[in-house]
Amino acid sequence: MNVFKEMKREVQGALERLQEAGRLPADADFARLSVEPPRDPAHGDMATNAAMLLAKPAGLKPRALAEAIVAELTRESAWIEGAEIAGPGFINLRLKAEVWRRVAAEILRAGAAYGDGDAGGGRPALVEYVSANPTGPLHIGHARGAVVGDVLARLLSKAGYAVTKEYWINDAGAQIETLADSAYLRYREALGEEIGAIPDGLYPGDYLIPVGEALKAEHGDALLSMEEAARRAIVRDKSIAMMMDLIKGTLADLGVVQDVFTSEREIVASGKIEAALSYLDEQGLIYVGVLDPPKGKTPDDWEERPQTLFKATEFGDDVDRPIKKSDGSWTYFATDIAYHREKYTRGFTHMIDVLGADHGGYMKRLQAVVKAVSGGEASLTVKLCQMVRLMDRGQPVKMSKRAGSFVTLQDLIDAVGRDVVRFYLLTRKNDAPMDFDLTAVKEQSRDNMVFYVHYAHARCHSVFRQAREAGIEPSVSALQDADLTLLDAPEELALMKRLAEWPRQVEAAAEAEEPHRIAYYLYEAASDFHALWTKGKEDVTLRFIQADDAARTMARLALVEALRTVIASGLDVFGVTPVDELH
RNA sequence: GCGCCCGUAGCUCAGCUGGAUAGAGUGUCGCCCUCCGAAGGCGAAGGUCGCAGGUUCGAAUCCUGCCGGGCGCGCCA
Known about the structure:
There is one protein chain. By secondary structure, the protein is α/β, with parallel strands linked by helices. It is built from 20 helices and 15 strands. Helix 12 links the parallel strand 11 and strand 12 (379-385). Helix 1 crosses helix 3 (62-75), helix 2 (50-58) packs across helix 3 and helix 13 (409-416) packs across helix 14.
């Protein structure tokens, strides 16, 4: 049950009845109608702008129209207790306490499924994220995209989309040849050869040593005498496979498991580039032309030459984009065209790419591609993740590959734990830069959202433990049977109202594609709970456990369980495991 | 030069896609532990929402132009 949706339906119903009665014009537009909780709780539980919106078309003063709406609204509503007209024409509604208790009861019944929505209507959505080059381990720069993408997928899934989580493997191109060369060097090293310093231009990392050893174990010294092309294929495939295993291992430790891994190499080999381009050609979107040099930053070796171009400008991009290099091979952009066409032909019209901020310049052209290859049917949103600065006690952690203090994502997970990494990276909008302070993220204080939310969950369990010691067993059935009408304190009602917002928060966060909203909601819910808990210290009658009143105690335990359920549900969206106890 | 993102309390950030007197945390100041975890809570002070226009019943939010910061800008992936 989404109270807010139900109320909007009621208000809309009232407006339609007024329409039928001829008191509102038949063509009145309700698109901008809002029924939302007001910022200030003194304004009631729900406020609507209906009167202000429709005053002009109705030819009435907002307050006069508001009175008519209120009369219609309160006539037969099961939920509305009262309505006031305020300010420029707001209608403030107060709902019966019964409404909130019903929500609490529903939470106890639905458990983790509370908050699940149907905004997605089962439609497929594809979230592509991480997609790091398989040339080495993931580092911190990849962490944010991995978490944001993963949680976006979980969020959309909770909101009713059929989500596919995808990784695009850049296993073609120059960097992969470099990887193969680097691995071959390690292979020779494994055979006992003295290789000295790793030459410039090759990957120096230790992580390739196991690749060399694996090649030795499988092939002995046979590769040395093998013809170059055949050898290169073997070394390359082995390197890519082992790098992907390394990456998947780290992602698994982060709790990220993707459904589909699409290989660039396979897309290239399958002829899908030619197919996609010929499709675009049929649409008249491919032509040969000459581009102007980039303004203000002409490369030294710039030479004007005719190129094969995609008409990206037709879809809002700034310039048309080349799809062939000067040597006749495809540009990376050409494979992007084929890949996004591939996504569309697999049935996805709702696509999300999670990319690093350094790919900002690619956003428009990718969106242009998606429009073009789908005949305008599909759309792509690009979530750009800004930099994460790794800090310790307020000081930047120096990272230099050369000095060997290169921090991998695996190191980070091992150092602070996957739940902390996940949650913390979601406490900011993805497009705002953030600091990740190794010490601060583990601090146990209120300014640490991660801790504060976990604490609330643990505290719920603490209450249950205390109840059991007092001889009260908060079993599922006992909680479901509790008499919630005994929850009548203003603080208790306020908490129930907060819990009633959860489905709405899920839907809003999913629609806006902003996982961080969940973090802030959980923080506020935790705050409400901690406040209520502490009030029980001063006012004994507010304590959850009332030794001489078993019924009231059970009602309050039910409220605690409802809160716990919502927090656990939010943490589940984040892929974070709730804790029953803090250490 | 062009494009994208950002500018909100001293500091770090929210602000529910246009709503009412702009909110948290932190820091400063003042309170609350014989009591379900003080790892917490309550209160005070703190703002020309970068600047200037515009759109309308109403703007931190949308549009335009400036100012300031970050990222990017053919043949790299």
